[in-house]
Amino acid sequence: MKKGRKYWVQGNVRTLLDNGGDYSGNKDYFPFPKTCGPFRKVGDQHDHYLSLLMLRSESRLHSKLTVTNLAVETMFLVFWINDLIMASAITYYGKLLSKLSKQRMTLAENEIELRQIKRQFKVHLQNVIFFKSLKKS
C-alpha cells in the first residue's frame, strides 16, 4: 500500500486492536461504529476485516468501478460468507454436542433408576420367600 494513506496504517490498527478497539482519537482511521462486525470480537483474526473495511471505504469514496474495487468487494463478501458458514457450523455442532451430552445424562439416569428397581425387586422377592418359609413352618 502507498505511504500516507489515512485510512490504513498497520501500526494504528495494531494499537487499536491492543486497546480493545477504542478508536475515539482516530476517527480518520475508523469511520465505523463499534458495533460493526470486526469490532465485536477484537483479535488478530479480524485484521483482514479491518483492512477490507478500509479498502471498501476508499472504493466507495471514489465511486469508480474498477477491477481493484470489484476485487476488494468480492474478497470482503467471500470472507463474510466464510465466517457465516463457520459460525453456523460451530453453532450446529455445539447444539449437537449439548444434545448428545443430555442424552448421555438421560441414559445414565435411566441406568441408575433401573438398578434401584432391581434392588427393590430383589428385596421384595427375598421378603416374599422369607414370609412363605415362615408360613410353612
Major β-sheet profile: none
Contiguous low-pLDDT stretches (5 residues minimum) are 1-23, 26-46
Helix and strand string, N-terminal first?
Answer: HHHH
Share of residues in helices = over 70%
Number of strands: 0
- Give the averaged pLDDT, no decimals: 66
Radius of gyration: 32 Å
Instruction: Specify the structural class.
Output: mainly alpha
* Distinct helical segment count: 4
Q: Give the termini distance in whole angstroms.
A: 104 Å
Globally, the shape reads rod-shaped
What share of the residues does DSSP label as strand, in percent?
under 5%
Structural commentary:
It comes from Diversispora eburnea. The chain crosses the membrane at residues 74-94. This is 331_t:CDS:1. Keywords: Membrane, Transmembrane, Transmembrane helix. This protein is mostly helical and 137 residues long. The longest helix is centred in the C-terminal third of the chain and has 70 residues, at 67-136. The chain contains 4 helices and no strands. The protein has helices at residues 10-18, 37-40, 47-62, 67-136.
